[in-house]
Amino acid sequence: MGKTKTSHHASHLLLPLLFFSTLVSTSHGGGIAIYWGQNGNEGTLAEACATGKYTHVNIAFLNTFGNSQTPQMNLAGHCNPATNSCTKFSPEIKDCQSKGIKVLLSIGGGVGSYSLSSVEDARNVSSFLWNTFLGGKSSSRPLGDAVLDGIDFDIELGSTQNYDHLARFLKAYSKRVYLSAAPQCPIPDRFLGTALDTALFDFVWVQFYNNPPCQYANGNISNLVSSWNRWTSTVPAGKFFLGLPAAPAAAGSGFVPADVLTSQILPVIKKSPKYGGVMLWSRFYDVQNGYSSSIVGSV
Ligand SMILES: *[C@@H]1O[C@H](CO)[C@@H](O)[C@H](O)[C@H]1NC(C)=O
Ligand SMILES: *[C@@H]1O[C@H](CO)[C@@H](O)[C@H](O)[C@H]1NC(C)=O
Protein backbone atom coordinates (compact mmCIF):
# COMPACT_ATOMS: atom_id res chain seq x y z
CA MET A 1 0.00 0.00 0.00
CA GLY A 2 2.69 2.39 1.01
CA LYS A 3 4.57 1.40 -2.06
CA THR A 4 1.68 2.17 -4.37
CA LYS A 5 1.15 5.51 -2.75
CA THR A 6 4.80 6.36 -3.05
CA SER A 7 5.03 5.50 -6.71
CA HIS A 8 1.80 7.36 -7.40
CA HIS A 9 3.26 10.47 -5.80
CA ALA A 10 6.57 9.87 -7.49
CA SER A 11 5.02 9.74 -10.94
CA HIS A 12 3.26 13.04 -10.34
CA LEU A 13 6.52 14.60 -9.27
CA LEU A 14 8.60 12.92 -11.91
CA LEU A 15 6.57 13.66 -15.02
CA PRO A 16 6.85 17.45 -14.93
CA LEU A 17 10.52 17.10 -14.00
CA LEU A 18 11.23 14.79 -16.92
CA PHE A 19 9.30 17.05 -19.26
CA PHE A 20 11.22 20.06 -18.01
CA SER A 21 14.63 18.42 -18.28
CA THR A 22 13.84 17.25 -21.82
CA LEU A 23 13.05 20.81 -22.80
CA VAL A 24 16.22 22.07 -21.20
CA SER A 25 18.46 19.45 -22.75
CA THR A 26 17.11 20.00 -26.27
CA SER A 27 17.43 23.76 -26.12
CA HIS A 28 20.78 23.78 -24.30
CA GLY A 29 22.78 20.72 -25.26
CA GLY A 30 26.00 22.53 -24.56
CA GLY A 31 27.41 25.63 -22.95
CA ILE A 32 29.69 28.51 -23.77
CA ALA A 33 33.02 28.92 -22.00
CA ILE A 34 34.61 32.37 -22.12
CA TYR A 35 38.00 33.81 -21.25
CA TRP A 36 37.82 36.99 -19.19
CA GLY A 37 40.64 39.09 -17.79
CA GLN A 38 42.96 40.15 -20.57
CA ASN A 39 41.34 43.46 -21.55
CA GLY A 40 40.33 46.21 -19.13
CA ASN A 41 37.64 47.39 -21.58
CA GLU A 42 35.63 44.16 -21.63
CA GLY A 43 33.48 45.01 -18.61
CA THR A 44 33.38 43.34 -15.22
CA LEU A 45 33.11 39.69 -14.38
CA ALA A 46 29.64 40.31 -12.94
CA GLU A 47 28.52 41.88 -16.23
CA ALA A 48 29.83 38.88 -18.16
CA CYS A 49 27.93 36.48 -15.92
CA ALA A 50 24.77 38.63 -15.97
CA THR A 51 24.48 38.17 -19.76
CA GLY A 52 23.35 34.61 -19.10
CA LYS A 53 25.35 33.50 -22.14
CA TYR A 54 28.19 31.67 -20.40
CA THR A 55 28.38 28.44 -18.44
CA HIS A 56 32.13 28.61 -17.70
CA VAL A 57 34.39 31.62 -17.13
CA ASN A 58 38.17 31.30 -17.21
CA ILE A 59 39.89 34.13 -15.35
CA ALA A 60 43.04 34.80 -17.37
CA PHE A 61 45.89 34.58 -16.47
CA LEU A 62 48.24 33.50 -13.72
CA ASN A 63 51.16 33.94 -16.10
CA THR A 64 54.18 33.70 -13.79
CA PHE A 65 54.71 30.50 -11.80
CA GLY A 66 57.08 27.63 -11.24
CA ASN A 67 60.85 27.37 -11.34
CA SER A 68 60.99 28.96 -7.84
CA GLN A 69 59.45 32.24 -9.06
CA THR A 70 56.93 34.17 -6.98
CA PRO A 71 53.65 33.43 -8.82
CA GLN A 72 51.92 36.45 -10.36
CA MET A 73 48.48 37.00 -11.77
CA ASN A 74 47.89 39.47 -14.61
CA LEU A 75 44.38 40.80 -15.21
CA ALA A 76 45.39 43.62 -17.58
CA GLY A 77 43.58 46.87 -16.75
CA HIS A 78 41.01 45.25 -14.45
CA CYS A 79 42.99 45.52 -11.24
CA ASN A 80 46.46 45.29 -9.78
CA PRO A 81 47.30 42.16 -7.79
CA ALA A 82 50.31 43.97 -6.28
CA THR A 83 48.06 46.51 -4.52
CA ASN A 84 45.47 43.83 -3.73
CA SER A 85 42.79 45.55 -5.82
CA CYS A 86 41.73 42.29 -7.53
CA THR A 87 39.98 41.20 -4.33
CA LYS A 88 37.06 43.34 -5.53
CA PHE A 89 36.19 40.45 -7.83
CA SER A 90 35.56 38.08 -4.94
CA PRO A 91 31.83 38.94 -4.61
CA GLU A 92 31.51 38.88 -8.41
CA ILE A 93 32.96 35.37 -8.54
CA LYS A 94 30.47 34.24 -5.90
CA ASP A 95 27.66 35.93 -7.83
CA CYS A 96 28.65 34.05 -11.02
CA GLN A 97 28.78 30.78 -9.07
CA SER A 98 25.34 31.43 -7.58
CA LYS A 99 24.04 31.50 -11.16
CA GLY A 100 25.52 28.03 -11.73
CA ILE A 101 28.48 29.34 -13.73
CA LYS A 102 31.79 27.60 -13.10
CA VAL A 103 34.67 29.99 -12.55
CA LEU A 104 38.20 28.74 -13.12
CA LEU A 105 41.64 30.31 -12.88
CA SER A 106 43.54 29.99 -16.13
CA ILE A 107 47.26 29.47 -15.75
CA GLY A 108 49.70 30.13 -18.58
CA GLY A 109 48.70 32.10 -21.67
CA GLY A 110 50.58 33.39 -24.68
CA VAL A 111 52.76 35.83 -22.73
CA GLY A 112 54.48 35.10 -19.45
CA SER A 113 57.19 33.34 -17.53
CA TYR A 114 56.21 29.88 -16.45
CA SER A 115 57.45 26.32 -16.33
CA LEU A 116 57.55 23.42 -13.89
CA SER A 117 61.17 22.47 -13.27
CA SER A 118 60.52 19.20 -11.43
CA VAL A 119 57.90 17.03 -9.76
CA GLU A 120 58.61 18.92 -6.54
CA ASP A 121 58.03 22.21 -8.34
CA ALA A 122 54.70 20.88 -9.64
CA ARG A 123 53.79 19.90 -6.08
CA ASN A 124 54.68 23.36 -4.80
CA VAL A 125 52.65 25.09 -7.51
CA SER A 126 49.69 22.82 -6.77
CA SER A 127 49.79 23.73 -3.09
CA PHE A 128 50.09 27.43 -3.99
CA LEU A 129 47.02 27.16 -6.25
CA TRP A 130 45.03 25.22 -3.67
CA ASN A 131 45.81 27.66 -0.85
CA THR A 132 45.58 30.86 -2.87
CA PHE A 133 42.59 30.29 -5.19
CA LEU A 134 40.82 27.07 -4.19
CA GLY A 135 39.67 25.47 -0.94
CA GLY A 136 42.86 26.06 1.08
CA LYS A 137 43.90 29.00 3.21
CA SER A 138 46.47 31.73 2.70
CA SER A 139 47.07 35.22 4.10
CA SER A 140 47.52 36.31 0.49
CA ARG A 141 44.54 35.60 -1.77
CA PRO A 142 44.54 38.00 -4.75
CA LEU A 143 40.93 37.13 -5.62
CA GLY A 144 39.84 37.22 -1.97
CA ASP A 145 38.00 34.46 -0.15
CA ALA A 146 35.98 33.27 -3.16
CA VAL A 147 36.76 29.60 -3.80
CA LEU A 148 37.23 29.03 -7.51
CA ASP A 149 35.81 25.91 -9.13
CA GLY A 150 39.03 24.79 -10.73
CA ILE A 151 42.18 25.41 -12.72
CA ASP A 152 42.46 25.83 -16.48
CA PHE A 153 45.74 24.86 -18.15
CA ASP A 154 46.50 27.19 -21.07
CA ILE A 155 50.14 26.20 -21.45
CA GLU A 156 51.66 27.64 -24.60
CA LEU A 157 55.32 28.31 -23.81
CA GLY A 158 58.24 27.28 -21.60
CA SER A 159 59.00 23.69 -20.70
CA THR A 160 56.58 20.94 -21.71
CA GLN A 161 57.39 18.92 -18.56
CA ASN A 162 55.50 18.04 -15.36
CA TYR A 163 52.00 19.33 -16.16
CA ASP A 164 50.75 15.77 -15.73
CA HIS A 165 52.07 15.90 -12.16
CA LEU A 166 50.43 19.27 -11.55
CA ALA A 167 47.09 17.81 -12.70
CA ARG A 168 47.47 14.79 -10.37
CA PHE A 169 48.42 16.92 -7.37
CA LEU A 170 45.49 19.30 -7.94
CA LYS A 171 42.92 16.53 -8.39
CA ALA A 172 44.26 14.81 -5.26
CA TYR A 173 43.19 17.80 -3.11
CA SER A 174 39.59 17.25 -4.05
CA LYS A 175 37.70 15.53 -6.84
CA ARG A 176 35.59 18.68 -6.95
CA VAL A 177 38.51 20.73 -8.26
CA TYR A 178 37.64 20.94 -11.95
CA LEU A 179 40.50 20.71 -14.38
CA SER A 180 40.30 22.16 -17.86
CA ALA A 181 42.80 22.63 -20.66
CA ALA A 182 43.11 24.71 -23.82
CA PRO A 183 45.35 22.69 -26.16
CA GLN A 184 46.05 23.66 -29.77
CA CYS A 185 44.17 21.45 -32.24
CA PRO A 186 47.16 19.47 -33.66
CA ILE A 187 47.35 16.13 -31.78
CA PRO A 188 49.20 15.56 -29.51
CA ASP A 189 49.49 19.01 -28.00
CA ARG A 190 53.16 19.65 -27.34
CA PHE A 191 52.62 21.15 -23.86
CA LEU A 192 49.44 19.43 -22.68
CA GLY A 193 49.44 16.02 -24.37
CA THR A 194 50.98 14.18 -21.41
CA ALA A 195 48.75 15.96 -18.91
CA LEU A 196 45.64 15.10 -20.94
CA ASP A 197 46.70 11.45 -20.99
CA THR A 198 46.11 11.33 -17.22
CA ALA A 199 42.36 11.39 -18.06
CA LEU A 200 41.87 13.81 -15.16
CA PHE A 201 40.54 16.72 -17.22
CA ASP A 202 36.84 17.54 -16.98
CA PHE A 203 36.70 20.06 -19.84
CA VAL A 204 38.97 20.43 -22.85
CA TRP A 205 38.47 23.54 -24.99
CA VAL A 206 40.55 22.86 -28.05
CA GLN A 207 41.87 25.95 -29.88
CA PHE A 208 40.68 25.54 -33.46
CA TYR A 209 42.35 28.81 -34.47
CA ASN A 210 45.85 29.97 -35.36
CA ASN A 211 46.28 26.35 -36.47
CA PRO A 212 45.69 26.08 -40.24
CA PRO A 213 46.00 22.25 -40.45
CA CYS A 214 42.96 21.69 -38.23
CA GLN A 215 40.78 24.79 -38.45
CA TYR A 216 37.98 26.16 -40.59
CA ALA A 217 39.19 27.93 -43.75
CA ASN A 218 37.57 29.43 -46.85
CA GLY A 219 34.21 27.81 -46.38
CA ASN A 220 35.70 24.36 -45.79
CA ILE A 221 34.78 22.64 -42.50
CA SER A 222 36.49 19.35 -43.29
CA ASN A 223 39.83 19.82 -41.46
CA LEU A 224 38.09 21.14 -38.37
CA VAL A 225 35.55 18.33 -38.25
CA SER A 226 38.13 15.57 -38.73
CA SER A 227 40.29 17.08 -35.99
CA TRP A 228 37.26 17.35 -33.67
CA ASN A 229 36.45 13.70 -34.32
CA ARG A 230 40.03 12.70 -33.49
CA TRP A 231 40.02 14.70 -30.26
CA THR A 232 36.72 13.32 -29.03
CA SER A 233 37.50 9.73 -29.96
CA THR A 234 41.16 9.44 -28.90
CA VAL A 235 41.84 11.86 -26.02
CA PRO A 236 40.52 10.72 -22.62
CA ALA A 237 38.64 13.64 -21.07
CA GLY A 238 35.17 14.52 -19.82
CA LYS A 239 33.72 17.04 -22.29
CA PHE A 240 35.14 18.78 -25.32
CA PHE A 241 34.41 22.35 -26.38
CA LEU A 242 35.04 23.81 -29.82
CA GLY A 243 37.43 26.71 -29.11
CA LEU A 244 36.93 29.66 -31.49
CA PRO A 245 37.77 33.36 -31.80
CA ALA A 246 34.75 35.53 -30.91
CA ALA A 247 35.66 37.96 -33.73
CA PRO A 248 37.98 37.94 -36.75
CA ALA A 249 40.38 40.26 -34.86
CA ALA A 250 40.58 37.86 -31.89
CA ALA A 251 42.99 35.51 -33.69
CA GLY A 252 45.38 35.41 -36.61
CA SER A 253 43.18 32.88 -38.42
CA GLY A 254 40.36 30.44 -37.85
CA PHE A 255 37.35 32.72 -37.34
CA VAL A 256 34.11 30.91 -38.21
CA PRO A 257 31.09 33.05 -39.22
CA ALA A 258 28.22 32.41 -36.80
CA ASP A 259 25.89 31.09 -39.52
CA VAL A 260 28.49 28.55 -40.67
CA LEU A 261 28.94 27.41 -37.09
CA THR A 262 25.23 27.02 -36.36
CA SER A 263 24.12 25.56 -39.71
CA GLN A 264 27.11 23.40 -40.73
CA ILE A 265 29.47 22.66 -37.83
CA LEU A 266 27.38 22.36 -34.66
CA PRO A 267 24.90 19.86 -36.15
CA VAL A 268 27.86 17.58 -36.96
CA ILE A 269 29.98 17.88 -33.80
CA LYS A 270 26.98 17.72 -31.45
CA LYS A 271 26.62 14.06 -32.46
CA SER A 272 29.59 13.29 -30.23
CA PRO A 273 28.56 12.21 -26.71
CA LYS A 274 31.66 14.11 -25.53
CA TYR A 275 30.39 17.41 -26.93
CA GLY A 276 30.31 20.08 -24.21
CA GLY A 277 29.83 23.30 -26.16
CA VAL A 278 31.85 26.17 -27.56
CA MET A 279 34.73 28.10 -25.99
CA LEU A 280 35.31 31.70 -27.05
CA TRP A 281 38.40 33.85 -26.92
CA SER A 282 37.57 36.27 -25.43
CA ARG A 283 34.98 38.27 -23.51
CA PHE A 284 36.44 41.50 -24.99
CA TYR A 285 35.89 40.34 -28.57
CA ASP A 286 32.52 38.85 -27.73
CA VAL A 287 31.35 42.23 -26.44
CA GLN A 288 32.55 43.85 -29.69
CA ASN A 289 31.07 41.26 -32.03
CA GLY A 290 28.05 39.78 -30.23
CA TYR A 291 29.15 36.29 -31.28
CA SER A 292 27.77 34.44 -28.26
CA SER A 293 24.36 36.07 -28.80
CA SER A 294 24.32 34.73 -32.36
CA ILE A 295 25.15 31.16 -31.36
CA VAL A 296 23.74 30.66 -27.86
CA GLY A 297 20.43 29.32 -29.17
CA SER A 298 22.25 26.61 -31.11
CA VAL A 299 24.99 25.38 -28.77
C1 LIG B 1 59.10 23.75 -2.70
O1 LIG B 1 58.68 24.29 -1.48
C2 LIG B 1 59.56 24.03 -0.38
C3 LIG B 1 58.87 24.52 0.88
O2 LIG B 1 58.43 25.85 0.72
C4 LIG B 1 60.89 24.70 -0.65
O3 LIG B 1 61.80 24.43 0.39
C5 LIG B 1 61.46 24.16 -1.97
O4 LIG B 1 62.65 24.84 -2.31
C6 LIG B 1 60.45 24.34 -3.10
N1 LIG B 1 60.93 23.65 -4.30
C7 LIG B 1 60.93 24.24 -5.50
C8 LIG B 1 61.44 23.41 -6.62
O5 LIG B 1 60.55 25.38 -5.69
C1 LIG C 1 38.04 20.69 -48.11
O1 LIG C 1 39.30 20.36 -47.59
C2 LIG C 1 39.62 18.98 -47.71
C3 LIG C 1 40.90 18.74 -46.92
O2 LIG C 1 41.88 19.70 -47.20
C4 LIG C 1 39.72 18.63 -49.18
O3 LIG C 1 40.04 17.27 -49.34
C5 LIG C 1 38.38 18.93 -49.83
O4 LIG C 1 38.47 18.71 -51.22
C6 LIG C 1 37.94 20.37 -49.58
N1 LIG C 1 36.58 20.53 -50.03
C7 LIG C 1 36.22 21.51 -50.86
C8 LIG C 1 34.76 21.56 -51.21
O5 LIG C 1 37.02 22.31 -51.31
Automatic annotation (TrEMBL):
Q: Which InterPro entries match?
A: Cts1-like, GH, Glyco_hydro18_cat, Glyco_hydro_18_chit_AS, Glycosyl_Hydrlase18_Chitinase
Citing just one GO molecular function, the answer is:
endochitinase activity
For this record, the Gene Ontology CC terms, alphabetical, are: extracellular region
Instruction: List, for all copies, the residue spans of the domain called GH18.
Output: 30-299
Q: Which reaction does it catalyse?
A: Random endo-hydrolysis of N-acetyl-beta-D-glucosaminide (1->4)-beta-linkages in chitin and chitodextrins
Compartment annotation:
Secreted, Extracellular space
Looking up Gene3D superfamilies in the UniProt record yields: Glycosidases (3.20.20.80)
The highest taxon in the source lineage is Eukaryota
Where is this protein primarily located?
secreted
Any idea of its EC number?
A: 3.2.1.14
* GO BP terms in the entry: chitin catabolic process; polysaccharide catabolic process
**Does the keyword field hold Disulfide bond?**
yes
Entry keyword annotation includes Cell wall biogenesis/degradation: no
Q: Which key words are in the record?
A: Carbohydrate metabolism, Chitin degradation, Disulfide bond, Glycosidase, Hydrolase, Polysaccharide degradation, Secreted, Signal
Signal sequence bounds: 1-29
> According to its UniProt record, which protein family does this protein belong to?
Belongs to the glycosyl hydrolase 18 family. Chitinase class II subfamily.
What is the protein's given name?
Answer: Acidic endochitinase
Q: Which organism is it from?
A: Cajanus cajan
